[in-house]
């Protein structure tokens, strides 16, 4: 008589929870695409408000009025952002004066590369010219759309300069009202979990943003000193741009390295370009192995896979601003998942794995010996 082993089915609640989470993510993406003009400045303002909240509280403890405290904090932050933008714009205008010289130098490098391709791959000059002409025609066709995107981005930035301080001030002013609204959305039995989520989110975002500022300052200083030693023109501009691009994980550091290499190759020689590559590789080594683990990584425990996917999804939804917002919002999502039992597995898969013991994924377990 054969006996069959009955398997315990997975509770239906797990399937329902997983389906609801997926539908919620799809709805959130759809809303983000549709309401981008509103949600984008609100998102930046929310992060800035979280960053400025300790400053406002410190001024309140000094006896200043609430409105005055918020106004001073917002004014100082916007002044710093506007000053950085003014510096980048003025330096970029000076950089534009050398663009004809840079284009001429890059054209010479292009022709040298063409001759190298002909010699190495034994291609005829006509074949190489056809390939180059196709690339040029494709660039011209995309040039108009690129200019259009650039103009639209500049218009969006100008609108953000007005909306950012307004939204930030209002979020800080109505902070207690917004928190009470969230509390009233949940029943009394969930108030403890909600409070834990709010406290964890505030701590993660504030610490992460402060870590990013410190990291950007260190990276910009190292890049600036290195570029000055190499003798690259516009060293401060390139260093600041590199530090800002470095805030975009994995993708930004590639662009941040190629731009100063092109400048060094155009205005100096190929040796300077190789020195720039060595400099940025060294700075990236320090950043990945010392600066980020000490300053940033200890505050946001997201694994590399989730970080890269978050950056790609953020860029797909909101473009370059979405890449900057991707990691903070992914960290907030992880805080929520870690503290809500029904979706805790999602928080686990987003986190880092302890490497104290080797992973057992590809380890072949020894067969157990049967007693004789």
Question: What can you tell me about this protein's structure?
Answer:
The protein is an all-alpha fold and 372 residues long. Helix 2 packs across helix 11 and helix 7 packs antiparallel against helix 10. It has 12 helices and no strands. The two termini are 27 Å apart.
Write the layout of secondary structure elements.
Layout: H1 12-34, H2 36-61, H3 66-97, H4 99-121, H5 125-173, H6 175-185, H7 191-230, H8 235-245, H9 252-267, H10 270-295, H11 304-339, H12 344-350
Helix pairs in contact: 2-3, 2-5, 2-11, 3-5, 4-9, 7-8, 7-10, 7-11, 8-9, 9-10, 11-12
Shape designation: globular
Portion in beta strands: under 5%
Helix count equals 12
Strand-and-helix sequence, N→C? Answer: HHHHHHHHHHHH
Q: Report the C-alpha radius of gyration, rounded.
A: 26 Å
Rounded mean pLDDT score: 75
> What can be said about the biggest beta sheet?
none
Classify the helix fraction into a percent range: over 70%
Outline the low-pLDDT stretches: 139-151, 355-367
Question: Total number of β-strand segments?
Answer: 0
Q: Could you give a quick summary of the protein structure above?
A:
This protein has 372 residues and is mainly α.
Question: Which labels suit this protein?
Answer:
12 helices; mainly alpha; 81% helix
């Amino acid at each position: 008589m054969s006996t069959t082993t009955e398997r315990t089915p997975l509770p239906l609640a797990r399937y329902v929870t997983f389906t609801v989470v997926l539908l919620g993510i799809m709805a959130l993406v759809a809303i983000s695409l549709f309401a981008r003009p509103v949600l984008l400045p609100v998102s930046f303002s929310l992060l800035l408000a979280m960053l400025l909240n300790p400053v406002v509280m410190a001024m309140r403890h000094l006896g200043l009025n609430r409105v005055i405290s918020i106004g001073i904090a917002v004014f100082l932050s916007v002044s710093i952002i506007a000053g950085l933008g003014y510096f980048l714009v003025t330096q970029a205008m000076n950089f534009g004066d050398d663009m004809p010289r840079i284009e001429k130098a890059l054209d010479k490098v292009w022709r040298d590369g063409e001759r190298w391709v002909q010699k190495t791959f034994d291609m005829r000059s006509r074949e190489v010219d056809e390939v180059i002409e196709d690339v040029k025609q494709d660039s011209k066709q995309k040039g108009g759309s690129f200019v259009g995107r650039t103009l639209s981005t500049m218009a969006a930035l100008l609108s953000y300069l007005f909306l950012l301080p307004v939204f930030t001030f209002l979020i800080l002013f109505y902070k207690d009202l917004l928190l009470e609204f969230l509390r009233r959305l949940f029943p009394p039995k969930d108030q403890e979990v909600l409070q834990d989520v709010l406290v964890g989110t505030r701590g993660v975002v504030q610490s992460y943003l402060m870590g990013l500022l410190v990291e950007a300052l260190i990276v910009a200083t190292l890049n600036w000193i290195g570029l000055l030693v190499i003798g690259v023109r516009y060293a401060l501009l390139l260093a600041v741009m590199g530090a800002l691009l470095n805030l975009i994980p994995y993708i930004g550091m590639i662009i941040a390295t190629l731009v100063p290499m092109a400048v060094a190759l155009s205005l100096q020689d190929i040796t300077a370009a190789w020195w720039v590559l060595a400099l940025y590789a060294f700075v990236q080594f320090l950043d990945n192995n010392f600066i980020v683990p000490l300053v940033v990584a200890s505050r946001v425990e997201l694994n590399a896979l989730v970080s890269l996917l978050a950056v790609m999804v953020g860029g797909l939804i909101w473009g370059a601003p979405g890449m900057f917002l991707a990691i903070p919002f992914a960290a907030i999502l992880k805080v929520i998942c870690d503290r809500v039992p029904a979706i805790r597995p999602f928080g686990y898969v987003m986190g880092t794995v302890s490497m104290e013991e080797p992973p057992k994924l590809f380890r072949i377990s020894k067969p157990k010996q049967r007693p004789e």
